[in-house]
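Because showing beats explaining, we let one protein speak, sequence and backbone structure tokens together, and leave readers to judge.
___
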Amino acid sequence: MLQPDLAIVILNYNTSHLLNTYLPSVVKYSEGHRIIFVDNASKDDSVEFVKREFPQIEIIQLDKNYGFTGGYNRALKQIDAKYYCLLNTDVEVSQSWTTPVLTLMESNESIAVCQPKLLSHLEKEKFEYAGAAGGFIDYLGYPFCAGRIFDSIEKDNKQYQEIKEIFWASGAAFFIRSELYHKFGGLDESYFAHFEEIDLCWRLKNAGYKIYYNPNSTVYHLGGGTLNKTSPFKTYLNFRNSLLTLYKNLPSKKLNSILFKRRILDLIAAFSFLAQGKAGEFKSVFKAYKDFKKMKSQYTKSKALDYPTCVYHKSIVFQHKIKSIKQFTDLKGI
């Protein structure tokens, strides 16, 4: 059967050290699909390596580093396909990995986005932090996954083998209908990186579309290939972009009360960083709030009347930190 039109788009910035490990599987198991390597003006030899070792891969070279969001937006304007798969440079794919996802999306036009199962490349029996078995969010805007709550990561014991609706799909392996990507403005370039896929998924869900997880496709993600997990800049982006996402997508009637509760919890998080000797992360939280205040006026707030589906209407922070719940299956009401 002829596969639907898919472009696998890999955005790169200075990750030549990863390419020889991860690109071979993409080339081997993505037959019949275009593979496009987009370079965000890397300073290493990434482009030369791909040209030399993988001449079948198309290359788009950008004039500067536009971040994850701007890089993809500029590249995807140049790519004509029915579906896009935004794929990280540090992802190993498996045989026939695209087929289950595309078959599912072809069967239901209301599915805008889908992700495969994400396992760790370093510990293949475990889920991977960035997406695991699909993303969710609590009513205060804190993200988590089936298979991963904060830093508690589960082993894959086939406990998440059901195709199901989720709240957000991981940007590490993000399948989306191209028509909807462009109709909804793509990734928010103000974000630069982090939380951008959650924002896009929320916008799509507010418009009535669905986000899905399909465990019949598996990929293995290294994670942290561009920004270190404990980077103050990453902390800044996560806090700032989380607040922007709430501001843009929450029902107006809930916005003030949710932001008030978030300020309290984020303040606790900031001083927790300080107590751990992470002065950079401590400062990043306050910088995030300062810049959020400056940036929010550029956005039009959502007209949504309520939360969309797959929101956890309790505090995941309370459930994890106070009640010590570490497994997604132990959460009630989701």
Observations:
- The chain has a mean pLDDT of 96.
- Residues 85 and 175 are 4 Å apart (CA to CA).
- The longest helix spans residues 252-275.
- The chain has two domains: 7-221, 232-330.
